[in-house]
Amino acid sequence: MGGQPMFILSEDTERTRGDDAQSSNIAAGKAVSEAVRTTLGPRGMDKMLVSDDGDVVITNDGATILDEMDIEQPAAQMLVEVAETQEDEVGDGTTTASILAGELLKEAESLLDDEVHPTTIVEGYHEAAELALEAIEEEVVETDLDRDQLIKVAESSMTGKGTGGVTAEDLAQTVVDTIDYVEGEDGVDRDNISIHTQVGSSSSATELIEGVIVDEGPGADGMPRTVEDATVAILDDDLEIQESNIDAEYQVSNVDQLNAAIEAENDQLQSYAEDLAATGADVVFITGDVDDRVTTSLADEGLLTFDSISSDDTESVSAATGASRVGSIDTLEDDDLGHADTVSVEKFGDDDLAFIEGGSAAQAVTIFARGGTEHVVDELERALSDSLDVVTAAVDAGGVVYGAGATEIAVANYVREEAAGVEGRRQLAAEAFADAVDVLPRTLAENTGMDPIDALVDLRSEHEAGTFAGIIAADETGVVDEPVEYGILDPAAVKREAVQSATEAATMIIRIDDVIASE
C-alpha cells in the first residue's frame, strides 16, 4: 500500500464538508424562506414568476411560488418539500412553514458559531416543538364550529389573496356552503368538491353548482341544449362501423351491390340511435368515438349526447347522477341509468360547458369560478382551493385558534417559559426556537406597514397583561388589537403542521456536514 491515498469517488465528484457544508445549506434554506417572506399576511405582496417559455404566474401563495421556482440546491429543495407537505396535509400555511423553517436555520447558525453541537440543536428543537404543540392545544378556542365561525375561517384564509372583484367574505360563504353539501357522518369528503374556472366575466359571478361541469358541447347542433328531469346513461364504446379483424376483400360488381352495402352500413348506424333511445335515456355520455351519421340520428331521436368524454369527466358524471359505466348498448339495463334534475349546455365565449345539476347521487358539487383574465381565475382558484382545505381541516382535524400572529406570540412565550426545564445546552436551542417563532408576527407587522420591533414589544406587553392580541391590518399602518374583535380564526391543524414540518426540515438540514455531488 505504501501510504498512497485511496480514491473512492470519481474525479468529477464535488464534495463540501464540515462548516462549509453546513453554512452552504443553511444559506440556501434561508434564501428560500426570504423569497416568500414578503407574501405573508393580508397585506403581503405578490410575486411574478416567469418561466423559460414566457408563461407568467402572479400569486402570493407560498406553495405555488416555491413550486414554480427552479430550485436545484438540495437543501433549498427540502424547504420546497416543506411547503408541499403543508399544502398536501392541510391546504394552507405554506408560507408560515417556510418562514419558520428558514428562521430556525438562522437561529441554528448562531448556535453553531457558539460551538453548540448540531445534535444538541436538533434535540433542543424537537423538545421545543413538542412544547409548541402543547401551547397550540391550549390556545384552541372552539372545536365544534358553527356556520359563522367557519365563514370567518374561510375568510381569514383568503384575506390578502387575489380574489378579483369579489370580496373574501362573499367567497367564504360559497366555500362554507360547499363544505356543508359534502359533509357527512364521517366528516368532509373533499374529493367530491371540484373547482371549474372560466374566463369571461367578473369574479363576482362565481357560484356554487350542485352537480358537476363537463367541458363539452352537444355532438350535433340539432340536439336539445337543456333536458329537465334527465335520465342519464354512460357508455364506454365506439358508435361507428366496426372494422373486421380479418384481412378480407369484398368485390362489388355493380351499383346495386354498392347501394346495398351502404344501406346495410346506415342501418347498423341507425340501430345504435334507436337502441339507445329505447333504453329510456335522454342524455348520453360516450367515452368513445361516434360516427357523424349516428350523431345525426341521435339528434333526430331527441337525445342530448356528448362523445369522446374523458375518464375523469365520466367518473364525475357517474358520481353526480348514479349512472353506471357500461361497455355496450346491449348490456345497458335500467339499473345502470342515472338521474339529474337538469342537464344544460351553456356557451361562454367560444366554449360550450355542460352543467349536470341535481343528480340523484347528490354527492358531487362544483364551484364555478369566473374572472376577467387567466391570471385572475388562476389566483382565484388557488384561493378557493386553500380555503376549502382550511375549512375542511377546521371541521375534521380539531378546531380553531386566533390568527393575526396572536397564537404565535402565545406559543413563543410558552416555549420560552418552559425552556427553563430543558437540560443542558438544549435549553439554548429551545430558546432559539421561541425566537424563531417570533419572526412570524414580526413579519406580519412589517408587511402590514408597522415598525416590526415596536409591534413585537407591544404584542408581548399585551399578552403579559392578559390580552390576547395580534397584528390587525385595520388602517393604513395596522394596529395591535384582539383578533376576536375582527373574527380572525385559523385552523389549529394548520399551526400544528407548520411547526412539525418546519422543525423536521430544519433539523434535517442542520445534521448534514458532508455534501457529495456527482457532476
Explain this structure.
Strands 8, 9, 10, 11, 12, 13 and 14 form a seven-stranded mixed β-sheet that branches. Strands 6-15-7 form a three-stranded mixed β-sheet, covered by helices on one side. Strands 1-20 form a two-stranded antiparallel sheet. The mean pLDDT is 82. It starts with 13 loop residues before the first strand and ends with a strand. The relative contact order is 0.19. It is elongated and about 100 Å long. It is an alpha+beta fold. Helix 3 packs antiparallel against helix 15 (492-510). It has helices spanning 18-37, 62-68, 74-90, 94-113, 118-139, 147-158, 168-182, 255-278, 292-300, 311-321, 374-396, 406-418, 426-448, 452-464, 492-510, and strands at residues 14-17, 47-50, 56-59, 183-184, 187-188, 193-199, 207-209, 211-214, 226-235, 283-286, 304-306, 325-326, 338-348, 351-357, 365-371, 400-402, 470-472, 479-481, 489-491, 514-517.
Helix content: 40-55%
Quaternary state of this entry equals single chain
End-to-end distance: 29 Å
Give the integer mean of the pLDDT values.
82
Q: Which parts are unreliable, with pLDDT below 50 for 5 consecutive residues or more? A: none
Proportion of residues in extended strands: 15-25%
Helix/sheet category: alpha+beta
Using the CA coordinates, give the radius of gyration: 30 Å
The largest pleated sheet is described as: 7 strands, mixed
Number of strands: 20
By DSSP (H or I, 4+ residues per run), the number of helices equals 15
Shape: elongated
